[in-house]
């Protein structure tokens, strides 16, 4: 092995790597191990802050008085406060749906099903809370005996709900980051995933099957020192389809059921699920070496190991 490979090999605890990656065979020699850097999840933390700010905006919109005086800033604040005060919970739901749609359609790294589900739950909670108050109020006219298990809704609940949503997303992000583990041996690249016991997988990629290798540090990654390394095989491992167009939404025959209400909800579901469509290198942490530190060094390491196993390095 080259001196560069030996430097990596000397920094790894081989016994610990074999314990965490039981699929590493006795004929393999562990050389490197790692996982997504905490900074690689910065986009999810930013999205969490945006959701918190939406909650805080509706919390403050009820408390703050309309600013007096002229000027563009006062005018904008007056309009925002008026809209929040007028639309209430429905205004919050609309803002969150727009944020959810933009995030999902753009196919960012935050556009996965877990994040989208979290955004929709954040959107629905105040709406369902308010609806229970309405049902209780209507039931009072008919002596139905229904009583909401929650206290009466008011704008002040936006603050604790926003903080709770923020803490839940941050906690899930930390768990998500720590759910992916990567190892490189002299014969294979190993990728393991174990997220909340719902999504678990493990696969090894032999250097003989690698057809393309690409290091992809983003602008933020260059600043913070992390990046993705895409390993593409002939069978399509390492590639993903990025949706573009109406084909990603609900099929036409599904969005045309009888009844106006069903048609509306089907249209809403199709609108939310619509995404772009193209085949690109997979950016899912389960399909590439996602957000690893010193990506160019790891890229060089894989190239040298490929050269030692199958011939000239991949450009």
Explain the layout of strands and helices.
Layout: H1 3-10, H2 14-20, E1 30-34, H3 42-63, H4 72-105, H5 113-139, H6 158-177, E2 180-185, E3 188-195, E4 199-206, E5 210-216, H7 219-224, E6 226-233, E7 239-245, H8 260-273, E8 275-281, E9 289-293, H9 295-310
Antiparallel strand pairs: 1-2, 2-3, 3-4, 5-6, 6-9, 7-8
Helix pairs in contact: 3-4, 3-6, 4-5, 5-6
Description:
This protein has 315 residues and is α+β, with helices and mostly antiparallel strands. It has a domain at 41-176. 49% of the residues lie in helices and 19% in strands. It contains nine helices and nine strands. The strands form three sheets. Strands 1-2-3-4 form a four-stranded antiparallel β-sheet. A three-stranded antiparallel β-sheet has the order 5-6-9. The protein has a two-stranded antiparallel sheet with strand order 7-8. A hairpin with a 3-residue loop joins β3 (188-195) and β4. α5 packs antiparallel against α6 (158-177). The chain is elongated, with a radius of gyration of 25 Å.
Radius of gyration: 25 Å
Number of strands: 9
Kindly state the mean pLDDT as a whole number? 81
Intertermini distance: 20 Å
Instruction: Give the strand line-up of the largest sheet.
Output: 1-2-3-4
Order of SSEs: HHEHHHHEEEEHEEHEEH
Question: What descriptive keywords fit this protein?
Answer:
alpha+beta, three-stranded antiparallel β-sheet, 9 helices, 315 residues, four-stranded antiparallel β-sheet
Write a brief caption for the model.
The chain is an alpha+beta fold and 315 residues long. The protein has nine helices and nine strands.
